[in-house]
Design a protein that fits this description.
278 residues; alpha/beta; 2-enoyl-CoA Hydratase, Chain A, domain 1; 6-stranded mixed β-sheet; 3-stranded mixed β-sheet; 12 helices; 49% helix; 14% strand
């Protein structure tokens, strides 16, 4: 997989899965999402691997979903045709965004996200699927999708990661949170200098790998179950339906026309970097 949109590497008991589209801030195309899924299959099947690190190549962890790349490769007919109707959008996003993320959340081995630079919208959703987050001191977390008449992204992670009141501020304003604030509110486990991020993530993974795999697997399942008993998974299901409804609102259609064809969060990210109004 080293020549693809995802790089898979193992070192002892640690597997590192790296999103490899640095030219577009690791925007998540359909191909990248498929290859992420394959990489997690490989890590799950390898009995030597006890911990997985999820990373992003280049300056940024991920700028979110890249809808332009639905047309990559042989997927063009399948996904483009599917998304021509509300029912098709629902089916596509449930499969590629909701269920693929949920799979990482439920992955039987401990996972660590190593986050640097921008972590936007679905990039944040992806990072939050991991059990732990190690952030570089230049990391910035943001979800400005409400400005585009979207309901955040497919899985509402924010209230579970930072509390409801902070989540409201974060989503309503679309303002970024820096690494220090992310640590203060419990969004990340630790903040380290950028040049030490992967070293720190690997050191943490090595410490976790000392425990017998069956123990970490069962304790992870129990902790996730505690979250489920609080309503986390039910809240995700509800929000996914809210997200689908907003796709078809008049507000979303009008903003889409004003953007003159911007079809992905990477487009919106680039516009924001130029200072354009969203």
């Amino acid at each position: 997989m080293n020549d693809s949109t995802v790089i898979y590497q193992t070192e002892g008991r640690i597997a590192t899965i790296t999103m490899n589209r640095p030219d577009v801030a690791n925007a998540q195309s359909s191909i990248l999402i498929d290859e992420l899924n394959t990489a997690f299959d490989m890590a799950e099947a390898d009995e030597e691997v006890r911990v997985v690190i999820l990373a992003g190549a280049g300056k940024h962890f991920s700028s979110g979903h890249d809808l332009k790349h639905l047309i990559d490769g042989a997927e063009v007919d399948k996904w483009i045709q599917m998304r021509t109707t509300p029912e098709g959008k629902y089916a596509h996003e449930r499969t590629m965004y909701y269920q693929r993320c949920e799979r990482i959340h439920d992955f039987p081995k401990p996972t660590i996200a190593a986050v640097q630079g921008s972590c936007l919208a679905a990039g944040l959703m992806l990072a939050c699927m991991c059990d732990l987050i190690v952030a570089a001191d230049n990391a910035s977390f943001q979800n400005f999708v409400l400005r585009g008449a979207g309901a955040g992204v497919e899985l509402l992670v924010e209230p579970w990661e930072m509390g409801v009141r902070k989540a409201k501020e974060f989503l309503f304003t679309g303002d970024p949170i820096d690494a220090a604030e992310a640590w203060r509110i419990g969004l990340v486990n630790r903040v380290v200098p950028l040049n030490q991020m992967m070293e720190e993530a690997k050191a943490l993974a090595e410490r976790i790998a000392l425990a017998p795999p069956v123990v970490t697997r069962m304790v992870k399942d129990s902790l996730n179950h505690a979250w489920d008993l609080m309503g986390k998974r039910d809240s995700w299901k509800y929000h996914f339906l809210v997200h689908q409804w907003t796709h078809n609102s008049n507000a979303a259609s009008e903003i889409s026309r004003k953007r003159k064809g911007a079809s992905s969060l990477s487009d919106i990210y680039e516009a924001r970097e130029r200072g354009d109004q969203l």
